[in-house]
Amino acid sequence: MPMTPPPDTARAAPAVAWLRRHWRWLAGCGALLLAAAAVWQVALWQLRSAVLQTLGPGAQLGALRVGLAGVEIERLRIAAAPANRRAGTAAWPAEDELRADQVRLVPDWRSLWSGPRHGQWRLQSLQVRGGYLSLQRGADGRIRLLPSLLAAPSSGSTAGDGTAPGHRLQLQHLALDGAVVELFDASVRRPAHRLRLEDLQVQAGPLALPFAQATEATQLQLQAVLKGPRHDGRLSLQGQAHLGTQDAQLQARLQGVDMLALQPYLLKAGEGRIRGGRLDLQLDPQVRQQRLHAPGVLTLTGLDLAPGAGLGGLLAGVSRQAVLAALERDGRITLRFSLDGRLDDPGFSINENLAQRVGGALAETVGVSLSGVVEGVGGLFKGLLGR
């Protein structure tokens, strides 16, 4: 009489038979999974190496994690570089060039393989929370930022925007949350005047580096608090700009800005002193095929000028008496102007054109001649906007 197999063996027999029939398929799947895991680890290593190489040896990281969602950096810090007499660079005016509580970077994983070979990197998103950035403007009006990362060596191995020659970066979306930006401006006084933006919120994209290789317009939304000694103002900027063609349609607003924060830009050496007041600005620049048209409205409210004699009685080249007389009407001065010109015209200067427009509006409003006003108002906009 044949023996009956145990119940457990009988139940396992179909599974064993199935494994015998499909073992090659299972072995192939296992090999594919192992290969995929190896490829994934190589991709993560490529990404980690690219991040560390970009940040440079001077960067300090609290943590660097790489996973399926991308890269997360915590407590990022790039300390300010010390003075270098041999290179002719002075000490950085702030303790840090860059800080961030958290940075999240989501790459286009395909670019991890093509990037090293073709010099093109693509990022889906870059999010920065609790960031800090310091900028410096020299006496020549030029702005410097992140010299540890972007300063070109003497061999000229980097491009003007901080990317290496032949390397391109495409970023689909940039988000800044709660950032702080400090500008140390030595073009208006020594020691450098400090302007501070807090609670900076930015949504922008897509972006491309170098800018000349941008193929589509960048959408931009920016809001920040402009700090003042007595009260804070608001800054907002929104619209779109094509970084390749320089076409743009933007709306810029300054609301309730403390004029004490802008005093070095409003007053020339030897002029009087501002004791208080608020500044509001509406500017709507549009650029089409290198032609700029930017209507604007500038309003000064509650302006309080300290008494002064001689040159001390001037505000941006306009006599204190004329300004006060205009303020007595309703406590404010409103200037309407329009900035126009071609950006590709070597003879066109945004600052000089703006100074002329605003200077003319100021002279007309307070009832004085234009002579001497343009130079004074020009100092304000040359200081704020650079050369």
Question: Brief description of this entry?
Answer:
The protein is an alpha+beta fold and 387 residues long. It has helices at residues 7-55, 111-118, 147-150, 263-266, 320-330, 350-366, 373-385, and strands at 59-60, 63-67, 70-79, 96-107, 120-137, 143-145, 168-171, 174-185, 193-205, 207-209, 218-226, 233-241, 248-258, 274-283, 286-288, 291-305, 314-315, 318-319, 332-342. It folds into two domains: 58-81 and 92-147 and 165-216, no CATH class; 221-387, no CATH class.
Percentage of β-strand residues: 35-45%
Distance between the termini: 106 Å
Average pLDDT works out at: 75
Order of helices and strands: HEEEEHEEHEEEEEEEHEEEEEHEHH
Number of domains: 2
Radius of gyration: 29 Å
The global form is elongated
User: Helix- and strand-based class?
Assistant: alpha+beta
Q: What is the helix content?
A: 25-40%
What is the number of E strands? 19
Main beta-sheet strand count, sense and barrel state: 17 strands, mixed
Low-confidence stretches: 152-166, 368-387
Number of helices: 7
